[in-house]
Amino acid sequence: MKRLSTLILLFFCSLMPNQKLNSQADPTGIFFSNTDIGAVKHQGNVSYLSDDQEYLIEGSGKNMWFDDDQFHYLWKSIQGDFILRAQIKFVGSGVDPHRKIGWMARNSFRPDSEHVSAAVHGDGLVSLQFRDSLGGDTNELPSKDTAPDIIELERRGSTFIMGTAKLGQPLNKIVYENSKLKNEVFIGLFVCSHNPDVVEKAIFRNVRIIKPFDESGERYQDYLGSHMEVLDVETLHRKILFSSAHSIQAPNWTPDGKALIYNSNGYLHRYDLKSGKTSTINTGFAVRNNNDHVLSFDGKQLAISHHDDQDNGDSAIYTLPVEGSSQPVRVTKKGLGPSYLHGWSVDARELVFTGSRNDQYDIYSVDIATGKETQLTNTEGLDDGPEYDPSGKFIYFNSNRSGTMQLYRMKPDGSEVEQLTFDELNDWFPHISPDGKKILFLSFGTDVESGDHPFYKHVYLRMMSVDGGDPKILSYVYGGQGTINVPSWSPDSKKVAFVSNSN
After folding, report:
1. How confident is the model at residue 240 (pLDDT cuts 50, 70, 90)?
2. 277-315 pLDDT per residue, tens
3. How far is CA 369 from CA 170, 297, 349, 413, in A?
4. pTM (2 decimals)?
5. Is residue 25 scored above 50 in pLDDT?
6. How far apart are the C-alpha atoms of 16 and 71, rounded to whole Å?
7. Which residues, 6 or more positions from 112, have their beta carbon under 8 angstroms from its beta carbon?
8. Inside any domain, residue 123
9. What average pLDDT does this structure show over 370-386?
10. Residue 298 in 3-state DSSP?
């Protein structure tokens, strides 16, 4: 069997000249391999910078048009639906204005193969290109965008969607229906110089290949795997720290900068940033924790939301030392209704949470010592995600009282409510940076009801000043529930931790 497998691999490789297989000396990251497509004059190349998770691709080729493609391809095979996303950049001014880079899905390595491509040209032209039949001509759907930094290609059955954007701006979409591509295709990044005598280069950062949620599955019962990521809010560079086949959610960054605390399957875990090792935090009987765990400002205590059997499975709030305890101390009283934790007061004497009381979800504070609750909001809509800023002057929260979910802030006693965001997106979970200057939050599109924050959607991580203003998109993420439910800033206010999802 081993000899047969070797012969099959050698035969497969013989069909693809200039191909380079994965090895420690020549890695291709999350892809399987790379190869030249068509009769190029100059062999292409791929360099993968593992520390930065970044690709440099060099490619030649006279064109990718009509019935003859010539380019360099970094690829893997995949079945079914997918989402491909990357930040892209040409290296240098280039020779031909029609040089191309982008994402491609194709049936084979033949130069006249059926394909769908999201292509960015050297002169800024953007188009969704496709060849429907073997040996047929290539067609295109041009975009209004020019010279984008972000490019995305998504497949939903026979429909392909290209998304493009300048870094920090919303994605613009082009849709192509009735593609003739097979279920199993090759997908990857490409570079074409559009000049047979020239080799062009491009850099691809924040590269993601995502297998989305199967809509035939049952939400909140079936789960995707997860990536724990860190984002630099200045450079906007993302790095995956580790991946899990399980649903992991809601990373807290400890104030000492040494670890991330996250939840999975009802348990809380600590990921050591230096060693990369994970340990389980002792929470005693509280092993049905949701993703509303929060560290006190001094990092000494941990508050959790545990679905307690004594309350028919409703969420109740407990505290314990950050190192863990077999006996968490209950804060919210029994029989009042579900309580979802979101923040500590600066002096660690109170917690703020979203509570269902009187058939309505509002924001409450609770005295940790006495369990006495104070209602801070009273609206017919949903008020959620309350969090103190480091000065203790404001509580920031999200509410759909205006019809869409927007961000607000108020004084700690619930007075002087001020709206901060005003666009059509649905904004959740405002997290204030430790320096007190910035708000990180999660934005869902108009495809999601304002009162819902589900798993497995296209979402934006956005940032703005604590006093309001125009939000900036930091990252384009496939996630949602569990991505940043809890405060996730690094202590120096330069990075944030978050979770993205893929099957």
Report:
1. very high
2. 999 999 999 999 999 999 999 999 999 999 988 888 999
3. 46, 18, 7, 18
4. 0.93
5. no
6. 13
7. 67, 68, 69, 131, 134, 135, 136
8. yes
9. 97
10. coil
Q: Which residue type sits at 69?
A: D
Instruction: Examine the domain organization and report whether 466 and 406 are in the same domain.
Output: yes
Residue that terminates a domain, selected from 152, 175, 210: 210
**Of residues 6 and 349, more confidently modeled:** 349
Tokens 């959740």 found at: 428
* CATH number of 89's domain: 2.60.120.200
Quick check: is 364 in a domain?
yes
CA distance 303 to 349: 12
Residue 9 falls inside a structural domain: no
Pair (163, 262) in one structural domain: no
- For the residues 315-329, what does the mean pLDDT come to? 97
On whether both 196 and 232 belong to a single domain, the answer is no
DSSP string, 252-286: EEPTTSSEEEEEETTEEEEEETTT--EEE---TT-
Q: Determine the residue type at 501.
A: N
In DSSP terms, which residues pair with 116 in a beta bridge? 105, 130
Return the H-helix or E-strand segment holding 4: helix 2-14
Helix residue spans in 278-345 (DSSP H): none
Structural domain tally of the chain? 2
SS3 51: coil
Domain finish residue from 182, 210, 238: 210
CA 171 – CA 365 distance, rounded (Å) = 38
Q: Could you give the CA distance from residue 140 to residue 118 in angstroms, rounded to a whole number?
A: 10
Does residue 236 share a domain with residue 195? no
Q: Answer yes or no: is pLDDT of 473 > 50.
A: yes
* Position 19 pLDDT exceeds 90: no
Residues contacting residue 240 through CB under 8 Å, at least 6 positions apart: 53, 227, 228, 229
Classified as helix, coil or strand, 112 is coil
Mean pLDDT of 160-166: 98
Identify whether residues 306 and 421 lie together within a single domain. yes
Residue 325: CB atoms within 10 Å: 17
Q: What is the CATH number of the domain that holds 379?
A: 2.120.10.30
369 plus 397 within the same structural domain: yes
**Signed CA dihedral, 109, 111, 114, 119: sign only:** positive
Do residues 155 and 235 share a domain? no
Q: What phi, psi does 11 have (nearest 5°)?
A: -65, -45
Closest CA to 301 of 280, 286, 322, 282: 322
Domain housing 157? 19-210
Q: Are residues 190 and 233 in the same domain?
A: no
19, with CB counted inside 10 A (0-12, 13-18, 19+), is middle
Whether residue 205 lies inside any domain: the answer is yes
